[in-house]
Specification:
This protein is of the alpha/beta class. The protein contains eight helices and seven strands, in the order ααβααβααββαββαβ. A five-stranded parallel β-sheet has the order 1-7-6-2-3, with helices on both faces. Strands 4-5 form a two-stranded antiparallel ribbon. Helix 8 links the parallel strand 6 and strand 7. The protein is globular. The N and C termini lie far apart (86 Å). The protein binds zinc ion (2 copies). The site of one zinc ion has 9 residues, from loops.
């Protein structure tokens, strides 16, 4: 004869099995109705593939491999550096102290950063993963007090609906640093993409940024966050503005460095 206690135990085991069966069936139904697809190329993937198919991961890893100059972010072998500068940035005035990058603006990383800017904010987890890897690999990660996303002019943010640099900054993992949006763009500038020379890009963004009244930047160490760096004119102008506001150190973190031959 089965006692009441044994009956309850058997029932408990059965309930767990039933629950697991229901969850499994629902997962199967969920996969049938909404199959997991690669966030980049939309190819079907397994649930465990972390958003990307193997092909896209391989392409992304190719873009994110390789050494770079910690002063300007361009491709550079550590043996080509002279006092920390690569041949490209020697003698150039750079207002940020150091830069960390996820990779080179090309192939899968270019496709993803462009899509991220054009409405596909669901790429934030994958791009955030790449940005966090770059951040952890930097020598300034532990110094950061504020993450400051490079701001858009309000009119551009209104059209786009979001600032991709702020969305990216929200995916960064840091034990103490906070996001601060007291750096603002006070002048609408033409797209840097259309600028013919680095000098034209510098002129285009000169005086375009300011800090809000009551900001807390004085004496702090800041990390600017942006999606793409080309000549660095925008980051440079932002860093200059933050240092004029009293920041003691300004670093930069970007997803991709473009225009290696500009
Ligand atoms: Zn893919
Ligand atoms: Zn350099």
């Amino acid at each position: 004869m089965v006692s009441t206690t044994e009956f309850c135990i058997i029932s408990g085991v059965d309930r767990v099995k039933l629950k697991q069966g229901v969850i499994f069936a629902l997962q199967g139904l969920n996969h049938l109705l909404w199959p997991a697809v690669c966030v980049n190329c939309k190819r079907s993937i397994c649930e465990t593939d972390a958003n990307l198919c193997k092909d896209c991961w391989d392409k992304l890893l190719f873009c994110t491999a390789g050494d770079y100059c910690r002063r300007c972010g361009r491709d550079a072998s550590r043996y080509a550096l002279v006092d920390g500068d690569c041949p490209d940035c020697q003698g150039k005035q750079i207002h940020f102290d150091q830069i960390a990058r996820s990779g080179v603006y090309g192939d899968a990383l270019q496709q993803m950063t462009l899509s991220f800017k054009k409405g596909r904010t669901e790429l934030d987890s994958t791009l955030g993963f790449l940005a966090n890897s770059a951040l952890q690999g930097s020598s300034f990660c532990n110094d950061i007090e504020f993450f400051v996303p490079v701001p858009l002019h309000w009119s551009r943010r209104l059209v786009r609906g979001y600032n991709q640099s702020l969305v990216l900054a929200k995916k960064l993992n840091h034990p103490t640093a906070k996001i601060n949006t007291d750096l603002v763009r006070i002048r609408h500038t033409k797209s840097q993409v259309g600028m013919p020379t680095p000098a034209a890009r510098t002129k285009n963004v000169a005086g375009a940024f300011a800090v809000r009244q009551g900001h807390k930047f004085k004496g702090t160490k800041i990390c600017l966050v942006d999606d793409i760096k080309t000549t660095g004119a925008t980051l440079n102008e932002c860093a200059k503005t933050l240092k004029e506001a009293g920041a003691s150190r300004v670093f930069a973190l970007v997803l991709a460095v473009a225009g290696q031959n500009v």
